[in-house]
Every structure is written in structure tokens, then in C-alpha cells.
Amino acid sequence: MSRTAELVLGLIGSIVGLVAGFWIIAYGNDVTDYIQTFTYLNGALGDSIATLGWITVIASALALIATLLIKKSPRGWGVVLTLIGIIMFFVVGQIWIVSGISIILAGLMALFRVPSPKY
């Protein structure tokens, strides 16, 4: 079965997440007031803008790998995509909205899409 919709949504979410992560790393200190309002983590991890950026980049890279492998094992990689999308909402927060929604949708579509019967 074609998994084009999952592939496109996963690619969009992963690429936007990578851009957002590198944006946080590069410009995070200049917009610290804005970034601090949308992180859900407190303490050392939540106070380090660069750490949040690198976590975003790593999660987006994992989502990109899962997206590219979704045709081989849709259910397994769908679970990975869904978990990455949900966990990152709590780690990064509002900057993850576009990435998270598209990655979660791709993961759920991979999990629940029923293959068409072959006659």
C-alpha cells in the first residue's frame, strides 16, 4: 500500500522541526524571554536554550529517519513518530506545534490505516 500521505506529513514535520531546532540554537539567546515562555521544563534543562535546541534537532532527525523507513514497517515506525511528536510537546512546547501535529498525524495514519484488500 502506498504510504505517500504519511511520508509527506512526516517529512514536513521533521524538516520544520530541524529548522526550528537550529533557530533555537542560533538565535535562542536573543529571544530568551519568548523561548522561556513556551518551555515546559524547569531547572537546568529548561534554562539552557541551546540544550532545548539540540533536543529538538535530535528528535527531528529521529522523526526524519522514522519517516523515511515508514514504508518498511508502518506500525513500528508509526509508534515511534507518535511518541516523538507527543513527548516533544512537553519538552519544547509551542515551537513544536507545526512539527508535532504533522508528525503525530503521520504516526497515527501509519498505525491505523487499514490496507486495502487484494482480490
Automatic annotation (TrEMBL):
Keyword line: Membrane, Transmembrane, Transmembrane helix
Record has Membrane as a keyword: yes
Keyword flag Lyase: no
Entry-linked Pfam families: DUF4064
Domain of life: Bacteria
Domain DUF4064: 2-90
Transmembrane residue ranges: 7-28, 48-70, 79-112
Protein name as it appears in the record: DUF4064 domain-containing protein
Organism: Listeria cornellensis FSL F6-0969
